[in-house]
């Protein structure tokens, strides 16, 4: 049943351009440039809203001459957000003007508004809601399609268009940069067209993050030194000169790239990665010793296996009960090598927690003594890694610039990949990452407390 609720057919005339008060229905519907003419319930659910354009004149898009000569009024069905929990079928009536400039090749044109741009088949606010669902709520595109009755390509194009509003990285002053890598898809095998040999391709991506805010500045393919230098070289001189510290994973490709482009910038290695290397060492020792002592893999009745997570926990933060259990494991004479490895791991942690360089240097002496006492291949390897990265560890101790925020960004990226059920199109993936990140950063920036240069530990 068609039951008009608004005023009866009222088309704006030149004398009614000044709009003193919007009718109640127009206020509720709130589509700029349009007023609601009628609204009715549809027999199969949903509502039909008819809205008419306010404008009585408009400028020709080609010549810019303003015309008030109406050629015809067009009726068009467009998609819009639901109102009051119901889907809306929106009909817009807008004037098609005649261009009055004789020299202009365009004969007619229609009005455009911010919500209904040229040739739009859906309102800008509907697209914005779909983009928000995908980028802010992490909804997969197919679910946003169902919720907003839009096509996949429409939403994807809106997301890519949203990415265009991302500020140029050169315009974002960064003092501490984080560089990190992540694998963007499963490793694939390709047959080389010429040599007919199978080659393994690991689709890696590297992200550049403002270490202080967690805002992703850029994403590049691969994790080689060449890809990193290419992105860094594309930045402006002023941006590069503003950089003070670059936080990286212990990866020599990253270190070479940064040293090549930015010889004056300090490189900080992330302490979490170094602690992880210490934990890996401890696990390797535990597995090897278990095999040697018991002649098999660990089982849950072996206390060293049962408490394997306790071994990896921070020793200075254990509860009394935890400490007591750990003592029982480490006092077992058969597993004295595990105890030695645990001591090395704890010395490594103490070294990274040092508050200044002299304290770190003293802690390193303790660490080296523990390594010498342990006298194992695994602990020697760890000591070599620490020696290789000592300069960068000292920068970390002094500045506390870490990749912690980059790591949380990587978790977000993995979530994007999961909801997308894997991405085949790299451009879509990159725009989704950059779009999500900038929106998160903008939201966080509204929080009053300021993030300084040094990310929190
Ligand atoms: Zn014209």
TrEMBL record:
Taking every annotated instance into account, which residue ranges of this chain make up the domain Transposase IS204/IS1001/IS1096/IS1165 DDE?
177-433
Limits of the Transposase IS204/IS1001/IS1096/IS1165 zinc-finger domain: 58-100
User: Region Disordered: which residues?
Assistant: 434-457
Task: Give the matching InterPro entries.
Answer: Transpos_ISL3 (IPR047951), Transposase_DDE (IPR002560), Transposase_Znf (IPR029261)
What sections of the protein cross the membrane? Answer: none
Q: Which residues form a coiled coil?
A: none
**Entry-linked PANTHER family:** TRANSPOSASE FOR INSERTION SEQUENCE ELEMENT IS1557 (PTHR33498)
Query: By what name is this protein known?
Result: ISL3 family transposase
From what organism does this protein derive?
Nesterenkonia cremea
Taxonomy of the source species: Bacteria, Bacillati, Actinomycetota, Actinomycetes, Micrococcales
